[in-house]
Amino acid sequence: MCQVSAEPPWADVKIQDHGIGMQPAQLDQLFRPFGRIVTDQTAPILGAGLGLCLSREYVRLQGGDITVTSEPGRGSTFTLRVPLAPVDA
């Protein structure tokens, strides 16, 4: 599911999956450099573990953030929050 909403001064994009989910203790690891969560189910998925770290840093430079909530066995929701640009009249 993808949900886009705006409530000035913020715009949010939420992406929700119904995958394997993650333990609460694992969530901070996602945004660290090379912070992959490797389990029997995720081991075949390739990646260096830099994508979320770099994405979050770029969004934070713009005044926003990327966050995640997750429940094991039920999936995860990633939220991208960015400030709305002022509209000139």
Explain this structure to me?
This protein has one domain: Histidine kinase-like ATPase, C-terminal domain (Heat Shock Protein 90, 2-Layer Sandwich). The chain is 12% helix and 33% strand. The chain has one helix at residues 51-61; strands spanning 2-7, 10-16, 65-71, 75-83. A 4-stranded antiparallel β-sheet has the order 1-2-4-3. It is globular and about 50 Å long.
Strand order of the largest sheet: 1-2-4-3
Supply the CATH superfamily name: Histidine kinase-like ATPase, C-terminal domain
Tell me the Rg in angstroms: 15 Å
Overall pLDDT level: 91
**CATH classification class:** Alpha Beta
Q: Provide the domain count.
A: 1
**Count of helical regions:** 1
Shape: globular
CATH topology: Heat Shock Protein 90
Q: Topology, pairings included?
A:
Elements: E1 2-7, E2 10-16, H1 51-61, E3 65-71, E4 75-83
Antiparallel strand pairs: 1-2, 2-4, 3-4
What does this entry show, briefly?
The protein is mainly beta and 89 residues long. It contains 1 helix and 4 strands.
Main features:
89 residues; 1 helix; mainly beta; globular; 4 strands
